[in-house]
C-alpha cells in the first residue's frame, strides 16, 4: 500500500513536470511569434541583424511575465532578481538565436538557393533552437531551488 502511494505521487510529479515543460514550450512559441512580428516591424527601420536584437527585449518581457505567472512560482526572492537571472539566461539564448539566424539567412540559405522568405525562416529556426537549454536554466537558475514549480491553476 505504501509503495503504491509513493509510486502514485512520483508518477503525478512526472506528469506535472511534463505539463510544465509543454506549457513552457507553448509560452515560448507565443513569445517567439511576438519576437517575429516585432522583428518584421523593426525591419522597416533597421537592418535584419539590428531588428533581431531590438525585438529581443519585447519578447523577453512578454515571456518573463507568462513564465512567472503560469509555470514558475517563486516562494522566495524578488521578481527583480528573477528578471535579472531570466535576462542572463536569455542573453545566452540571444547569442545562439543570432548566430543561427544570421548563418542560415546570410550563408546557408543563399548557398542552397533558398528564396522563400529566408530571413523569416532563419529567424524562426533560430528562435526554437534554445528551448530545452532555456527550460533547464530557468528551472535551475532563474527560479532557483527553494522555489516551487506549478502549472496554471486551471491545469492542475
Instruction: Give the H and E element order.
Output: HHEHHHE
- Class derived from helix and strand content: mainly alpha
Strand percent estimate = under 5%
On the 0-100 scale, what is the average pLDDT?
Answer: 84
What gross morphology would you assign? globular
Number of strands: 2
N- to C-terminal distance: 25 Å
CA-based gyration radius = 18 Å
Instruction: Give the fraction of residues assigned to helices.
Output: over 70%
Low-confidence sequence ranges: 1-7, 147-156
Largest sheet: 2 strands, antiparallel
Output the strand order for the largest sheet: 1-2
Question: If helices are DSSP runs of H or I spanning 4 or more residues, what is the number of helices?
Answer: 5
Using brief descriptors, characterize the structure shown.
two-stranded antiparallel sheet, mainly alpha, disordered C terminus, 5 helices, disordered N terminus, globular, 156 residues
Amino acid at each position: 500500500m505504501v509503495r503504491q502511494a509513493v509510486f502514485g505521487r512520483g508518477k503525478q510529479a512526472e506528469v506535472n513536470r511534463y505539463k510544465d515543460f509543454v506549457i513552457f514550450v507553448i509560452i515560448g512559441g507565443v513569445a517567439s511569434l511576438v519576437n517575429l512580428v516585432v522583428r518584421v516591424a523593426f525591419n522597416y527601420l533597421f537592418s535584419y541583424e539590428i531588428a533581431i536584437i531590438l525585438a529581443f527585449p519585447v519578447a523577453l518581457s512578454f515571456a518573463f511575465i507568462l513564465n512567472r505567472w503560469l509555470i514558475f512560482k517563486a516562494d522566495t526572492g524578488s521578481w527583480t532578481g528573477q528578471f535579472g537571472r531570466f535576462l542572463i539566461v536569455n542573453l545566452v539564448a540571444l547569442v545562439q538565436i543570432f548566430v543561427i539566424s544570421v548563418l542560415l539567412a546570410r550563408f546557408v540559405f543563399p548557398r542552397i538557393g533558398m528564396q522563400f522568405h529566408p530571413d523569416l525562416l532563419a529567424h524562426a529556426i533560430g528562435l526554437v533552437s534554445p528551448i530545452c537549454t532555456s527550460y533547464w536554466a530557468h528551472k535551475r537558475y532563474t527560479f532557483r531551488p527553494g522555489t516551487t514549480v506549478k502549472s496554471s491553476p486551471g491545469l492542475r
